[in-house]
Amino acid sequence: MKYSCVMTGSESTSASAPYSLHDRLGFRVSRLAAIMRASLDKELSQLGLTRLEWCVLASIALEGITAPSGIAENIGITRPTASRTFKQMRDKGWLVQNLTEGDGRARAITLTDAGQDLLARARVLVDAHQARFLDKLDPQAAAHFLSALDTLLEGVHDRFDDP
User: Fold this and answer.
1) DSSP structural state of residue 12
2) Using an 8 Å Cβ cutoff, are 77 and 27 in contact?
3) Which residues form a coiled coil (predicted)?
């Protein structure tokens, strides 16, 4: 299904302008997110991995974030959700949580060898998944699209239980 937006300028906020649900930013972004989420969930499930677990693996190994609170903030989830996820991943043997040097209370999370192996296999799926969508755009359009998304997300710091 193709979507087109015919409203421009002040028409887009006018109560008298024709309304089309499919022209709304929220509808389009939500629909794209739902499609991408469902397809990635299906692919990652082949590895016994959830999107949230992928986000944890990537935050630790690819972005170098090891503090539990930092990982939760990076992903945009609540602390209780993060704690449950870390426990499940420890139970699966994918990560370990150790006390950091110099602070008996601070903890650092690292991946086990099994977690590193899973990360490598999942990275191939995640990269291919993203490429299937972004490759529909020429490189300049993709860069503009991602930049526009960054602009729309500026100042938004909500926490969700489903990133």
Assistant:
1) G
2) no
3) none
